[in-house]
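Ex. 9. Protein: Aminoglycoside phosphotransferase domain-containing protein.
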Amino acid sequence: MVAVGEVLSGGITNAGAVVRHGEIVDRPAQAHAPAIHRFLDALAEHGFTGAPKPVGLGDGREQLTYVAGDVALQPYPAWSMTDAALASVGALLRRFHQASSAIPLEPGVPWATGLADPHGGTMLCHSDTCVENVVFRDGEAYGLIDFDLAAPGRPLWDVAMAARYWVPMLDPETAARFPSYAGLDPVRRLRILADGYGMSAEDRTELLSVVDEVIVVERADIAAGLEGGDAAFVKAFHDHGGWLTWDRLQAWLADQRTTFLAALTQ
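Predicted structure tokens for Aminoglycoside phosphotransferase domain-containing protein:
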């Protein structure tokens, strides 16, 4: 039995501010929340049932239905890092994109920019398909939550974002800091994610370039956060190696590019 008013774990920006009341989740609302609510309604109409449904909006907060299931939080449980779980994340993204591509983009909406695809696009991407934003049922990825960063983009943007954290696309030194990633082969797992999505040959050749773009956008987002001067954010950044960690990651990806590409396309 879940207690009334249970504060939900996970997240950074909204940490401690997301509360579940039975089957309703009450959380801070973004400026573009009305458009997101219309989009979520349209997703359900187009057959994607794995997203929250809007219930209410006002006074700077929104109410959405609770998507029941399992969400992996750090340290990630073993079940969330299996090959089968990874393949199902790819399949989930494919289903989401099929529904989203059928929904016309609303003009004039102040979509989030923090992790948005710099090329834009004709469909709305989730833009934050990290481990903590995927809901599982019976060991398979079922739903997506937290659409705060949704923005127009290319389907590959969501897949590349997912690859960063699900594969994960991390250099060995950085990955070794996370026990949840111990023993995972990122080269093989990137192929599993692409196969689960049903990725075309053309998209497979482009995926690594989009991963590179994701990292550039993430770096810019972190730089903006550092400029904001939040003490906890600054401390966490330096505790994790600062920009040297990001430089090492990008150098490793460049060095391993041929190996990743071969695994994706052969």
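Check your answer against this statement. The chain has two domains: 6-65, 78-265.
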